Amino acid sequence: MRSDFDKRAERLPLKVVDSVRTASANKVQGRFQAIASVFAEYDSARRQAAATKEYVLDNLADLLVELEASCLKNGVQVHWAEDAEQANRLILGIVSRAAPSALVVKGKSMATEEIGLNERLIQEGHQVVETDLGEFVVQLDDDVPSHIVTPIIHKDRTDVKRTFESHGLSPRSDEPEELAAVARARLREEFRRADVGISGVNFAVASSGRLVIVENEGNNRLSTTAPRVHIAVMGLEKVLPCDTDLALFLRLLAASSTGQRLTVYTHLVCGPRRPDEPDGPEEVHLVLLDNGRSKILNGALREILKCLRCGACLNVCPVYRQASGHTYRHTYSGPLGAVLAPGLDGVHSHGALAFASTLCGACQEVCPVDIPIPELLLKIRAEVGATPAAPWPVWAWFAQRSARWRMALKALPMVEPLARPWTEHREWPEPSGVDFRRWWDQRP
Amino acid sequence: MRVQLALTCLVDGLRGSTGVSMVRVLEHVGCEVVFDKRQTCCGQPAFNAGDWTSSGRVASAFVDCFDRDLPIVVPSGSCAAMMREGFRMLGLGAGLRVFELAQFLMNEVGVEKWRPVSRSRMVVLHSGCHGRMLGSMDSLERLLALVPNLTVVTPETSEQCCGFGGTFSMSHPSTSKGIGIEKLYRLKATGASEVVSTDWGCLLHLEGLARREGIGLKFNHVADVLAEAFE
User: What's residue A1's pLDDT?
Assistant: First the structure.
């Protein structure tokens, strides 16, 4: 009866829970203030964004073909990857052509986490350096991100200092500025020497072929411009119809994810260096990753493909805040992950995540594109089925007739031993003593 | 106005006095209360647990006990949300007019004043999450603000769930507890010693935790607080 998720969550050190709670509460507050200051009419902005995403899903195939044509016109080479294996092989091919044992610098990208790209590149003799500060720490720790936007939300600065020290970096203090300066000095050298830069994509515009990448640290700018080759990896659903859509989506994403009016950097990648330009990559590649997305598009969980990966639903989720991201054991955690993980990999491998929710609805409330996450979780639950299954038909037998139901309710105190998961942490509720039905029958 | 009372399992089995309070409160605002004794459970536990076949059987027997033309008033936001959203997903009960008590009093009846309750005191509100689905997150606060001798406070991060989640509290007991303890400390920090909510689900979970942990708080349903005015 008790889930493995709950057992994993219980083993988390209190310090991790505190760290996640504090950071996510701050992010919830930041989002709230940003939305109030950026949008005069937030509800209609949100409705428009949801409608645009609906349009994208309705016309996904056409928009992707249009995106490919626009990219080719811009000199960007486009590759289609059906699954993780194909994507990894494609990317390996490009990297190996750039240099037999290449130095690869990476901007933050959940799509490459999803396909396990780093391990593959390293196996094949390439060197990979994560350049987002959080991802850099994750890589030093030989860990995985615990949040899609804030990869080390589970750590505080003393933890980061310790990680740095155990890898020969010697910050003088655990002040954030000092930690950033130490990482910056190390990474600057890597950018200078790198052969290939790999990034994610936040939005790709079908009509213009612009690849849009947002960030706050400048590491993506260096990853995508300093090396000779830039490879951008994006999930199919990130396409938007027109450049003008960006005015809304850039602000919605920044406000929802980091509580900003806009991120510090917004890159519009329009192709490789042109002959009259002083710098920039010689080759730009776009890898369009399916990896289960077209299966989701044609199924009951379709709406999860509207997701912008802002992370607002993680920050506000009581379960995520208590359990942290690693407990989900998937690249995507929180309410988004509880839908996307079973969607991408099948309900039989990650369907249990859909049960790790109180269905409180806070996720849908903060979602910038109004994805009905609780409803999608319920659909997954129905597909997985109840575990254990046995009690529910018995329950239904009693609950279909009021006479049987009365008997069952009277016997409720006797089932207390069956309710051990409840009574392990809570006192058993005592009946109040008044029987409503008797009172109703006896009133004059 | 004639209204139908949907009792809910928790009131039926454990908190009968809240059913009595529901009738008194509804009659006080001029409603004639209808109660169909054939009713059992709305089917929510099995629905949330993923057994929609069992849930659908119970839910359709439940729907048969109600008249589509009369409003249904429920002492639980969670059951009310099931009767609206859950029944829609099960393909049942389209057109049922379902309201949680506080929402019904504020939005349908338009209550503007209430009598003083028996004991003048401060209470802290716990807004059940299902108000989100019913579009009535603030009706409990607006309603209790009408009671002359109640001082009503809300905790910090009042919109956060208490961690009950029905079957979630059994399948994820430790996570549920962690969320609940955080909520209890927020409630306690207001200085109030009595928690009022629209849902016995949330309240029994919080009460069970508070008693186990020795956190001194009392837990009360909004119907019982309102009915004190007639004692």
Answer: 77
